Amino acid sequence: RDALITACKVHSTLVHSVNDKIMFKKSFSTQVAEVSLLEGVLNEQSISEILPVVMLQLYINPCLHLFVSPALILFSFWPAKTLFNGSVHDAYSYINEVFKCEFVTLNNVDEQDIYNEALVFLRDTECIDAKTGELGPNNKVRLILQHLLQPFITGYSIVAHTLLEMSVQSVRGTQDTILIYSQKIARNLLAKRLIHPYCLSRDMLKNALESFRLLNFITKNVSNTEIQYLPNEKQLLRLISVFDTSEINNKKEPKCRL
């Protein structure tokens, strides 16, 4: 409780405590936002609602490297069975590569060591059963870890859907066009309360685009001094399948083990 009170004081321009509940301040100024980047995507009222959440997420992001590997392993249980021949490690490696531009790990640290350390954490917290290799009984910690990933899983999926949709409609795929198009899709989903506000983060969407380029999910094409991105449909459809969270949302346990 004391820690929450202190946090509210530190972030008093964003939130305040009302009857033991943390509430966003409605009078929050949007002047710090680059409103011009969202022109045609969000109105000022929408920005005033979304911006505090995005700013708070920016405080969380630097700490995510402590939890992202365990979270990615847990998430990997779902696509492992159908898309990676039952290998959680292969699913994890694939997803970890996708997020290379998003979550920065220490240099000169072996990826296998990071994976093994994450497994120790998951076994110690009973998120994974040490004997069977299946998901363990600690649903609370599992839920927290999966929740941390959700904005990024959804955001990257939105960019993938955007690239495929723009290709079908023969829309020119410049970076700005792709980002604005992605934000519009995110805006519509947010209006229905289906996604986290951070899914509109331009920085995250740019990271997704760069990651897709590095992994050859898209091809960077320079013509007439304009840079366009051409989608690799097969790779993007695979990514969308991997990031499908319907079974997780339905609380369907994956029939898979380490």
UniProtKB/TrEMBL annotation:
MF-aspect GO terms: glycerol-3-phosphate O-acyltransferase activity; glycerone-phosphate O-acyltransferase activity
A Pfam family: GPAT_C
UniProt name for this protein: Putative glyceronephosphate o-acyl-transferase
GO CC terms, sorted: mitochondrial membrane; peroxisomal membrane
Listed GO biological process terms: ether lipid biosynthetic process; fatty acid metabolic process; phospholipid biosynthetic process; triglyceride biosynthetic process
Keywords: Transferase
GPAT/DHAPAT C-terminal domain span: 53-220
Keyword Ion transport belongs to the record: no
InterPro entries for the chain: GPAT/DHAPAT (IPR022284), GPAT/DHAPAT_C (IPR045520)
